[in-house]
Here is the input.
Amino acid sequence: MEEKKVALITGASKGIGAAIAKRLAKDGFNLVLGCSNKNSLEKDLKEVEKECLVYGVEVLCACFDVSNFSECSKMVELVREKFKTIDVLVNNAGITKDGLLARMTEEDFDKVSLVNFKGVFNMTRLVSAVMLKQKSGRIINISSVVGLKGNAGQFNYCACKAGVIGMTKSAAKELGKRGILVNAIAPGFITTNMTQTINEDLKEKIKENIVLKRFGRPDEIASVASFLAGKDSSYVTGQVIVVDGCLLI
Ligand code: NAP
Here is the structure.
């Protein structure tokens, strides 16, 4: 029987990351699932783990902060000890600290940058070293449509998500010849905790600008991640796949 491949997903305790975890479990991947705080680990991530185990895969759950290089490094070592390989990395962990530029604090800029931008560097730098030795791998970065079009009130977040696209294209060019494919998904508005804070009036206004007239579901991002992690995308790299119900064009 073929060995199961291993996928490491950051921010897997809820929302899009949890949906990707469940989808990749269904696809037959052993999983390493991360989140940032202990409460999430005990409550949300263990629930996600339970749903993944149904598919007969192995799951390692861990709490580590993607913005902390040494925590990420320890985590990657742990994964290598347990699973030996890392075939797929999904850089999904993300936060927002929205506000108009005139009032945005340095702290809010730094915090968002550390998680959404430096976190992608940390994990990509460490996991690509493993993939380079294997001469194979897939890296999937979760960007956002606002990284392509900008958004008032999200100067910090949009900058990071645009930066993630730059990292995706650069990594694709650097790593492709060693069998590592790197792509980004740019979701539009997806129903998760992150978008729960948007008030109902604004949600209705946003929907008017979406051709499909609704927010997306996390599983609608997970199915694209499944494609990028699987055999059918073997000639796809350096791409940004927009999944937004037709909001951007
Ligand atoms: P979410 O429901 O708020 O989940 C965020 C996840 O990231 C949680 O698992 C959280 O862990 C984890 N996380 C936060 N800070 C972390 C850190 N420092 N280290 C490790 N993990 C951390 O968010 P979501 O909506 O699913 O978003 C997932 C990704 O999609 C993000 O990158 C987001 O920017 C992007 N995105 C979302 C939308 C949308 O409309 N929802 C649209 C475009 C792009 P804890 O549970 O421990 O906090």
